[in-house]
Amino acid sequence: MKFLQFSMLLLPILLDALLSFSMGTSYHEDFLQCLSLRSNDSTSISNVVYTRNNSSYSSVLESTIRNLRFNSTDTPKPLVIVTPSRTSHFQATIYCLSYVAKVPFVLVDLVNFRSVDVDAENRVAWVQASAIVGEVYYRIAKKNRTLAFPGGVYYTIGLGSFISNRGFGLLFRKYDTGGDNVIDAQLIDVNRRILDRKSMGEDLLAVTRTLEQNATQLIFQWQNIAHQLPDEINPDLIMLNFNSTQNGSRTFQALFTSLFLGTIDELLPIMQQRFPQLRLSRQDCTEMSWIDAIIYFNQLKNQPLESLLNRTFLKPLGSQYYKSKSDYVKEPISETALNGLISRLTDEQAPSAYIIFMAYGGIIDRIPEDVTPFPHRAGNLYKIHYTVKWQEQDNVNSQRYIDWTRRSYRYMTPFVSKFPREAYVNYRDLDIGSNNVNHTSYAHARIWGRKYFKNYFDRLVQVKTEIDPKNFFRHEQSIPPFP
């Protein structure tokens, strides 16, 4: 892929999502009345509040749910949804939840906070939290198609959670995570104060080839090579379960996909020297601009740039049911062990399963693990992402598919990181632990917290204790304060 010029775009984030819980099951009318009294314009705030009696309640709630496992009749629903259109709405909501609300929970949806302001000359942008990655890419490309930001591959990802959880994408090995390129931020704390970087403190801010034959040998070799490739190469390996064209039985397909920040003429000699077994040729490669690469990886071939503005686009993952887990690998896995994993991938119990190996190395290795909340750095060869997906008509078999991910995860125990067995926070996995309802224990949270954050977990707990000591903002795997 050809980049005539690559410049780093530094991106601040305005606000992160707010989810607040309170004790009790009634009195939400008190909460609504409080909102009206605390808002400078009661008419405007009434237009962004949705109760269960509102005809738009369901559509607002379901508009961004991508995993339908969490949209069943048994899933707890908020009694009130607030979609603020101005900062004062946030402050009023926090005040009323703090002093009046006695409801199970209220959801604050940031859909109206999505502006993107790009200063191409100074290579910086100010972006509100509800903007999706595609909107950011689009605004950058309209100003300068040679600028980019290390956001996610899939463009419907919300930027607020992407930044705060240290999300990554195709530029990961060259420019680190998206959150590590933030130069300033604003957020509202539990006391309704608007904080920026100075006032909050640094601690808070803190190529494709398909192979069906002899693929195991190439996968084994990839493990030893991918993390040592130049920073400009982002090599991934995708293994799919599919029907063989030769005999109709279940088999697997290995896809070696890469993005290279350079030309084909620069890439070919590198790969011929480092990974000759792949037999990469000019015909396997396509040169394009960065923004066209984003369109390509989102399967939007021949679609206009404006396609990136579609917040409801469902491909390639789609709005469906799925279960995911993650692992980190520090030593190459033997061919025998890989064959064991592949045999599970071709299991008929999970016909839509896939496993992705994502190479690390590059700039990731050169940053100490205790500097940012993303500690999975030097020593990791690659990350594993296990996923199985299914559609609504097949939901009766959901437990079978979920069990497949758990069996595959158990099988990999001897071959992955240990003490702790690391996990990637953006692939939220409640199997590894979650907070108890209405009671968050530091000792309990540390079990899963160290998997996501390693020793940085205690630093996050310290920050949480300073800014939210009563644990007002929380969810199943939120950071707890010290007792």
- CATH C-level name of the domain at 209-284 and 320-415: Alpha Beta
The CATH architecture name of the domain at 209-284 and 320-415 reads 3-Layer(aba) Sandwich
State the separation between the terminal residues, measured CA to CA. 52 Å
Question: Which structural class is indicated by helix and strand composition?
Answer: alpha+beta
Look up the CATH topology of the domain at 209-284 and 320-415. Vanillyl-alcohol Oxidase, Chain A, domain 3
GO molecular function, one term: flavin adenine dinucleotide binding
Signal peptide: 1-24
Organism: Gossypium tomentosum
InterPro entries: BBE (IPR012951), FAD-bd_PCMH-like_sf (IPR036318), FAD-bd_PCMH_sub1 (IPR016167), FAD-bd_PCMH_sub2 (IPR016169), Oxid_FAD_bind_N (IPR006094)
